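Reviewers of the previous submission asked for a worked example of the structure-prediction workflow described in the proposal, so we include one complete record here. The input consisted solely of the amino acid sequence. No template or homolog information was supplied to the procedure at any stage.
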Amino acid sequence: MLLLDEPLSALDKKLREQMQSELRRLQRQVGITFILVTHDQEEALIMSDRIAVMFEGSIAQLAAPQQLYRRPVNRKVADFIGVMNFLPAEVTAVNGEAIEVEVAGLGHVAIASEQCPGGARTGPASVGFRPETLTVLFDGDAPRARVSDGVVDEVTYYGDMTYYGIRLPGVEAPLTISMRNLFGRKVLERGEAARVSWDPGALVLFC
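From that input alone, the workflow returned the following structure tokens.
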């Protein structure tokens, strides 16, 4: 077993990415367990077969990267790993495998019980979803299951990606939405109207 305690923290971005690939190749070659300690959530997702998220010396969740990212067990883990949007919600009914929820800015949503890792109960709750699970619709784009109207509040251009802050009616904080800058796709400006497409299957409910 090899313990790696923040081994790449002092490297610049390009060298760090190269060393991440080199460490993964080395682990496969030697075939022993690597335990990597890092405060970089993206690095943990890239490097790991399993991730333990710890708070105050206790493991909050131990899971494969995809499971951890898509189905965090509670809001604290969701907020710690990557970027997560949160909207206030109200669970109105729990009927076996179906949960009826009123979500601010999105309206009535029926979601599956597997989308509520901590278990569902009626009353106040919050709903989380990742920036890449929403889509800003442009002319000719086919919507997903649901569409909500909003206004662009902030635009952050990264070259290959643009991150939008989009404000929905009745929601205090803008939603973060990431869009890949495909050839020919315009970049919206602040103040423009935006149609946001989303799928209820991407939501995670925290009661």
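The chain has two domains: 2-80, 83-207. We consider this example representative of the routine output the project will generate in years two and three.
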